[in-house]
Design brief:
The complex is a heterodimer of chains A (507) and B (586). Chain A is mostly beta strands and 507 residues long. Chain A has a single domain, classed as YVTN repeat-like/Quinoprotein amine dehydrogenase (Methylamine Dehydrogenase, Chain H, 7 Propeller). Chain A is built from seven helices and 34 strands. In chain A, the strands form ten sheets. Chain A has a four-stranded antiparallel sheet with strand order 1-34-33-32, with no helix packed on it. Chain A has a four-stranded antiparallel sheet with strand order 2-3-4-5. The relative contact order of chain A is 0.13. With 586 residues, chain B is an all-alpha fold. Among the domains of chain B are: 117 residues, Leucine-rich Repeat Variant (Alpha Horseshoe), CATH 1.25.10; 118 residues, Leucine-rich Repeat Variant (Alpha Horseshoe), CATH 1.25.10.10. The two termini of chain B are 57 Å apart. Classes of the chains: A mainly beta (507), B mainly alpha (586). At the A-B interface, strand 10 and helix 3 of A face helix 1, helix 2, helix 3, helix 4 and helix 13 of B.
Chain lengths: 507, 586
């Protein structure tokens, strides 16, 4: 809020459109390099402070990045401020560590292969400098602790190390039946083993020396066997002790500390599976009210439920749906209405949803329709038939909101992503490409004709490697889709995944 | 370094393994910390071992947990109570780790040590520790601090007491819900140590904060505090301060809070006294019995008897009984089941007339419930009603209920009812049993499920114990022995098992005359499994029967079996022979 927003000083009217710049890339592909399936990023998440970023990939790995600019620049900033310079720092990250979160598994009872692909990552409350996060694949949620550990060197043993090793049987025997009865019959060693009152001077404690530390990720808990269908979302509660997990038909509530039981709080499974018309596609808990939960459906509706009302929340407190425009119905209407992701804004008042063609911003106090709708890639509408045939129409794009709630962002094809201003009166609508030059070529094109002409929108095109260009000069490449992206919680910085590469931008 | 005397060797290994790579070995060493301490002596324990433990606190949680536990009982090894304060630093760090169970154990150990410490040491080292934790940077330290105030407070001088109360009040308003939850959980303990005037002012204002918390999870812990605080306050203060809160809670928006109230309400009745109970708590409880949420009704229904015991019978009949009647036909089977598990206990509270008039119809309708758990719960508490009205009134309805359960398609239900058969038999008496239930008991011996057959065999034994050998000779033994000719070998095996259970109850004579011949006969069975079970049963009969019988009948049979073609039969037969030899020697 303090970094990039300094530009926004106009007292009235909407904030100016942001000028996005490339910041960093991790895992950039060299020309002609083929992407390994396992390296494709499948989840991105900033932690609450924005000092850490986690990505998960199809190979079941979780990679952590840490912010480098805050620590180093604190002193420097004060100098800069004194000199009345604008602060031009932006979040910069460096690789911190990575670990294998999930492995491929086979469910023998159901003859099902369980992919190791990370579906979602959520950060939990930090404690004592250790980082905690939840990661999930289709079936199993895991709770990880990442912590610096001292590398220990032990010297000054009582027994020479070689000897201790040589008498391995003795060393391990202190486990169960030790040669001395005093140890084995631990109840009353006094009787069998007497020590002089001053102790035995010849015994010494090991001396531990440690200089370096290294990061260790440990799996603290595994929450398994609670979902019959694939888990699409996990979300932490503001109470700091519970979280939810959602699959196609059910949402379960867990206590972070209890891994062997969960409570089913939403169950949309009909008695007869043939009556199934709607599935859960995404779920999130409210950022501050521990009792509020929103979930989206494949029919394009969002349901807000109050966990206080009942133990099994089959009836919703509020239903958010956009009334269907008359006459616009087609074969694809229902398919493209399906919501792929929902997010609460930081203040909890607004919710953002992404369906195939649009981003919608909802006010939780208004269930009659979205506050605003942003067309993400309207030029694809004539191509829905092709998109259906190659299954692209079922791609699940994520969406995100800026920390100040003034802007929203989501991905599209050809490694493009779009940023929209959602403050009242804002016409900001930027298209960026996930590459080192996000705004390579600017083409004037009114992407939202309903808005005033003053809207300056940009569209970029990929270079020569573009696979297809339609009549309007818009590019689309179905194979390079930008599904996952995240907005830094406090600054205007976006991290997005293009296949195996992580691109970061700032404004 | 290798100059360790032979007897010291195990201790030396133990010490070295404090830092072994293998977590099992480290754990083992930590569990033997007292041995290590004694080997080092008190002074070196204080000066070397404890600092060593304080420095090495980034171990695995399992090791830390064990360390937290060991340190709690370490006072004797550091030289007694006057040195207790050296144990505080390692436990203080353990109070800040992320793993909840380690912190809880460390707090527990600190409380244990603090309770033994001398007043001056408490002021000089324990109270500063509590203050440091309460001001901790990470929430983990603050969470732990809440559990230590009740130890620190009593010995603090006046000024410090004021400060401690202020700190606790801060903790009740902490940003982190985890800290507020811990403050809510421990408020009762802390309040018990605070002087009456402060209790009414400071503690009550903290309590008010907690009861108005945004987070359900904090509010519902505050509910638990209601009962604890209520017991500390004078009845009139309790009525003035706690009662409105609990009445409010009973109408809370969150079902989880109401659930807690439903569970706790009866405890408050005693604290507030009879008049407020009648005017406020009874209506609140009636509301909870009618709650929209089934979980709340389950909790409330489960406390019906406890609540009624506190009330006088008229109030119970007037207000609670109508609700009970409604709950007995509740739409949720779990509510009915919860009710069924306690409702029998109301009979002694209400007295004979009210029970016959009002409760009996409810019992009867629950006995016909479609959900087996409900019926089982009624049957399991039959004795409580029997004391008040006698069983005759129920017996007419009982039988169909029992028969239906006995034939339930779920074997766990059948298992449950078998386990109540001896209880039923004792309540219903021999006559009733002979007519109606005898056949059922035999039928279970032929059940398809092993667990049922096994329980049935046990049941036969318990019945024989209940009604005596004479009765059993007439009503059980012949029927059981008949079944030895069952074509299915598994059923024959069940009979052998029953015989081995019955024999000790029936005594030597009957065993020799009736049971033993059947067993001996079975040794000619064509199935090896039967034959080696015969060997096992014979072995179990040896101590029961006369020496001469062992010689004349059992041993020849065993000898024969020990030459069987099947290896298992030979094995068990020779085992039995061996044990018969031992009996003869002694």
């Amino acid at each position: 809020m303090n970094g990039g927003d300094e530009v926004v000083t106009a007292p009235a009217g909407p904030p100016q459109p942001l000028d996005w710049k490339f910041s960093q890339v991790f895992g950039e592909r060299t020309a002609g390099e083929e992407v390994q399936e396992v390296d494709i990023i499948s989840a991105i998440e900033f932690d609450k402070t924005g000092d850490h970023l986690a990505t998960g990939d199809r190979g079941g790995r979780v990679v952590l990045f840490e912010r480098t600019d805050t620590k180093d620049h604190d002193a420097l900033r004060r100098d800069l401020e004194r000199m009345d310079h604008p602060i031009n720092r932006h979040p910069e990250f460096r690789y911190k560590t990575e670990f294998q979160s999930h492995e491929p598994e086979f469910d023998y009872l159901k003859s099902l292969e369980i992919e190791e692909k990370i579906n979602k990552i959520r950060w939990c409350q930090t404690a004592n400098g250790a980082l905690f996060l939840l990661s999930t694949n289709d079936k199993t949620i895991k709770f990880w602790k990442v912590q610096e550990k001292k590398v220990k060197k032990i010297s000054e043993m009582n027994l020479d190390p070689p000897k201790a090793v040589g008498n391995g049987c003795v060393a391990s025997s202190s486990n169960s039946n030790s040669p001395t009865p005093g140890l084995a019959n631990g109840g009353s060693p006094d009787n069998d083993f007497s020590f002089p009152p001053g102790g035995l001077p010849s015994l010494r404690l090991p001396v531990v020396t440690s200089q370096e530390t290294n990061l260790v990720a440990r799996c603290r808990r595994v929450y398994a066997h609670a979902h019959d269908y694939h888990i699409n979302s996990i979300s932490n509660n503001s109470d700091g002790e519970t979280f939810i997990s959602a699959d196609d038909l059910r949402i379960n509530l867990w206590n972070l500390e209890i891994s062997n039981q969960s409570f089913n709080i939403v169950d949309v499974k009909p008695a007869n599976m043939e009556d199934l018309t709607e599935v859960i596609t995404s779920a999130e808990l409210h950022p501050t009210h521990c009792n509020m939960l929103a979930y989206s459906s494949s029919k394009g509706s969002i349901r807000l439920i109050d966990l206080r009302q009942s133990a099994l929340c089959d009836s919703h407190a509020k239903l958010f749906e956009e009334p269907e425009a008359p006459g616009s119905r087609s074969f694809f209407t229902e398919i493209i209405a399906s919501i792929s992701d929902i997010k609460f804004a930081k203040d909890g008042r607004y919710m953002l949803s992404r369906d195939y063609m649009t981003l919608k911003l909802w006010d939780i106090n208004m269930d009659s329709g979205p506050v605003s709708t942003f067309q993400v890639h309207e030029y694809l509408r004539p191509k829905l038939c092709d998109l259906y045939e190659n299954d692209s129409i079922f791609d699940k794009f994520e969406c995100c909101l800026s920390g100040d709630g003034l802007r929203v962002a989501t991905g599209s094809y050809s490694n493009l992503f779009r940023v929209f201003g959602c403050a009242p009166g804002s016409t900001e609508a930027t298209t960026l490409e996930a590459s080192k030059n996000p705004v390579r070529r600017q083409v004037q094109m009114p992407s939202r004709p309903s808005r005033s002409l003053s809207s300056i929108t940009r569209v970029v095109r990929r270079g020569a490697e573009t696979s297809g260009v339609d009549a309007n000069g818009n590019s689309f490449d179905f194979t390079t889709k930008l599904l996952h992206l995240a907005w830094h919680p406090t600054e205007n910085s976006i991290a997005c995944a293009a296949a195996n590469s992580l691109y970061m931008y700032y404004a | 370094m290798a100059m360790i005397d032979e007897p010291l060797y195990p201790i030396a290994v133990l010490i070295d393994e404090l830092k072994n790579e293998d977590i099992q070995l480290r754990l083992n060493s930590i569990r033997r910390l007292s041995t290590i301490a004694r080997a080092l002596g008190e002074e070196r324990t204080r000066k070397e071992l404890i600092p060593f433990l304080s420095e090495n606190n980034d171990d695995d949680d399992e090791v830390l947990l064990a360390m937290a536990e060991e340190l709690g009982v370490f006072i004797p090894y550091v030289g007694g109570v006057q040195y207790a304060n050296v144990l505080l630093p390692p436990l203080e760090t353990l109070c800040t780790v992320e793993e909840t169970c380690v912190r809880e154990k460390a707090v527990e150990s600190l409380c244990r040590i603090g309770a033994q410490m001398m007043e001056q040491d408490l002021v000089e080292s324990f109270i500063p520790l509590v203050k440091r934790l309460a001001a901790g940077e990470w929430f983990t330290a603050r969470v732990s601090s809440c559990g230590l105030f009740h130890i620190a407070y009593p010995s603090a001088p006046e000024a410090l007491k004021t400060e401690l109360r202020a700190i606790y009040s801060q903790l009740c308003q902490d940003d982190m819900p985890m800290v507020r939850r811990s403050a809510a959980t421990n408020l009762g303990n802390f309040a018990a140590t605070v002087e009456a005037p402060h209790l009414k002012v400071d503690i009550m204002s903290m309590f008010d904060d907690l009861t108005q918390d945004d987070q359900d999870s904090v509010r519902l812990l505050a509910v638990e505090g209601c009962a604890a605080l209520g017991k500390l306050l004078e009845p009139q203060d309790c009525a003035a301060h706690i009662l409105p809160v609990i009445v409010n809670f009973s109408q809370d928006k969150s079902w989880r809070v109401r659930y807690m109230v439903a569970n706790q309400l009866y405890e408050l009745c005693e604290a507030v006294g009879p008049e407020p109970t009648r005017s406020d708590l009874v209506p609140a409880y009636v509301r909870l019995l009618h709650d929209n949420e089934a979980e709340v009704r389950i909790a409330a229904a489960g406390k019906v008897t406890k609540f009624c015991r506190i009330l006088n019978p008229e109030l119970a009949i007037q207000h609670i009984l109508p609700c009970v009647k409604e709950l007995s036909t509740d739409s949720s089977q779990h509510v009915r089941s919860a009710l069924a598990s306690v409702i029998m206990g109301m009979a002694p509270v209400l007295g004979k007339d009210a029970t016959i008039e009002q409760l009996l119809p409810i019992f009867l309708s629950l006995l016909k419930d479609e959900f087996p758990d409900v019926r089982l719960n009624i049957i399991s508490k039959l004795d409580q009603v029997n004391q008040v009205i006698g069983i005759d009134l129920l017996s007419q309805s009982l039988l169909p209920a029992i028969v239906e359960l006995a034939e339930d398609r779920h074997w766990r239900v059948r298992l449950a009812i078998i386990e109540y058969i001896p209880l039923l038999a004792s309540q219903l008496g021999v006559g009733f049993f002979d007519d109606k239930l005898g056949a059922l008991c035999m039928q279970w011996l032929k059940d398809k499920v092993y667990s049922i057959r096994d329980a049935a065999a046990n049941n036969v034994k318990r019945l024989a114990e209940e009604f005596g050998p004479d009765w059993a000779m007439q009503h059980i033994v012949p029927q059981v022995l008949d079944m030895i000719n069952n074509p299915h070998y598994l059923h024959r095996m069940t009979i052998l098992h029953s015989i081995s259970l019955l024999a000790p109850v029936m005594g030597s004579d009957i065993t020799c005359s009736k049971l033993l011949p059947v067993v001996i006969n079975a040794s000619k069975d064509r199935v090896p499994n039967i034959k080696f079970n015969v060997a096992k049963v014979l072995q179990s009969l040896i101590p029961i029967v006369d020496q001469s019988v062992v010689e004349k009948k059992i041993r020849p049979c065993l000898v024969e079996l020990s030459e069987d073609s099947d290896v298992d039969v030979r094995f068990f037969a020779s085992q039995a022979l061996e044990s018969s030899n031992q009996v003869m020697m002694s």
